[in-house]
Design a protein that fits this description.
single chain, HIT family, subunit A, five-stranded antiparallel beta sheet, binds adenosine monophosphate
Amino acid sequence: MSYDNDNIFAKIMRGEVPCEKLYEDDNTFVFMDIMPRADGHCLVIPKTPCRNILDASPAQMNACMATVQKMARAVMKAFDAEGVTLQQFSEAAGGQEVFHLHFHVLPRREGVKLRPPGSMEDFGVLKANADKIRAVLAEV
Ligand code: AMP
């Protein structure tokens, strides 16, 4: 399977599709999931192309993991969370829908279930949640 340069996350990085951007460094980019399964649900992606963990290089994986840890600490603080769930899906049979490598970072609280997938968030709420994360990023 080859990488499609016109996947939605590639378009987001090129600025062709809007997003609530949270963070970027030389190698990774982070933004809010538009259909969050928990408040603060965000996505960490490498800036360079790869479909998923099956074709990613060690450098792409390492860069993503360092940013995943940073975002996990940020969402814990921003949402007064008690834990974090990471999700990653590779290829359609593995549950992947967007074919640019991404890691879901979800803040969790005891007894609060993830919401079902597929519900678009209100953009005001998405921005407010993004603001909470952006406010703590410098501290983590
Ligand atoms: P998956 O490939 O199964 O990990 O699912 C793709 C994820 O990307 C889902 O959680 C979607 O809600 C999310 N998503 C799809 N389009 C956008 C977008 N334009 N902005 C932010 N998140 C998106």
